[in-house]
Amino acid sequence: ELQEQQAALEERELALREGFAQMKLAAGELSRRESAIKDSVQFLDRKRIALDRADRESMENRLVSAANFREWSVRQSAETLPLPAPPGRFHGSSAGAGAGTGWGDQRGEARDGTTAEDVFNKYDVFGGSDGRRQQNPQPMRSSAEESYFQGVRK
Predict the structure, then answer these.
(1) Does the model's pTM come out above 0.90?
(2) Where is the stretch described as Disordered (predicted)?
């Protein structure tokens, strides 16, 4: 009977050792999987951070570009004057652009004195019907055009 008990104990000990070995293998596999998952999460986090940074930089670049364009556009608008009206138009002439069409010369007149003629006569550049003339007959140019023409003259 003692031998049977000892044989049973040895069998149980062998089974326990085998069970522990299998648990160790399973724990090692779980550890490897956990490590791989952590690596994947870190990789995805780095990618997300890089995408966020790229989105932020792209948005900043678009905002800077829009602001630069707005500044350029405002400068261009300020530096560029509208073209003068063709001769005979809006200058009280009955033989002109609207002659014979049934339209009077007062077309487009507003009550606040902003007829087309008033607007055009406001600027010396146009030399309107009040007889004022610009001193320099050259049209005004934007600074970009001026720098281009200076380069051509040299």
Answers:
(1) no
(2) 80-154
